[in-house]
Design brief:
Blueprint (H helix, E strand, L loop, with lengths): L6 E9 L1 H11 L2 H6 L3 H11 L5 E7 L2 E13 L11 H11 L11 E6 L10 H29 L6 H9 L1
Antiparallel strand pairs: 1-3, 1-4, 2-3
Helix pairs in contact: 1-3
Length: 170
């Protein structure tokens, strides 16, 4: 089933409660944290105040509540999981911002990707972020195609990149 309207999948860093709490204590004052019901809510408030196009989405992992720090919105055109791998630079960027954590909570980070939960209100930036990802992927694909054609033409081929790849295996 292919759809013209892509379905948003979210990808980012999966945080357990200790990691979320450490992130909150590194980002907010004790007063800001105490004004909110939870560290999750306090961080969401901070992200909204700063007009950041990221969020935290709670999810269950092996019976425990975890939080996805959404950094990328990925399109799915057929409704299946796009099998997005969280890129190393996302973990590096997170550690650059937060270090290893007060008790080394960020030494081990995991990534996750799943469909935007239907029961959650979609942020107004969700589809814009998904289109940005789609445009980036299209740009990367077109750049690879252009490079492959240039290599093929330089090798005296017909412009068929597969021909060059096959001949280079010989």
């Amino acid at each position: 089933m292919y759809t013209e309207d892509p379905i948003p999948y979210i990808s980012g860093i999966a945080l357990n409660q200790a990691q979320l709490d450490a992130m909150a204590h590194l980002s907010l004052s004790e007063e800001e944290i105490s004004r909110s019901r939870t560290t999750h809510c306090a961080l969401i408030d901070l992200m909204e105040r700063k007009n950041q196009k990221i969020t935290l989405v709670p999810f269950d992992h092996k019976g425990e509540c975890h939080y996805l720090l959404v950094t990328i919105v990925v399109p799915s055109f057929d409704g299946s999981d796009p099998k997005m791998t969280v890129l190393k630079y996302i973990f590096d960027s997170f550690r650059k911002s937060y270090g290893r954590g007060p008790n080394h909570e960020f030494d081990r980070l995991a990534g996750a990707t799943f469909r935007w939960p239907i029961c959650f209100v979609e942020p107004d930036w969700l589809y814009d972020r998904m289109r940005e990802t789609e445009c980036y992927w299209r740009h990367c694909y077109e750049r690879k195609e252009t490079q492959a054609k240039a290599i093929a033409q330089a090798a005296g081929g017909t412009g068929d990149a597969m021909q060059v790849v096959e001949s280079s295996k010989v």
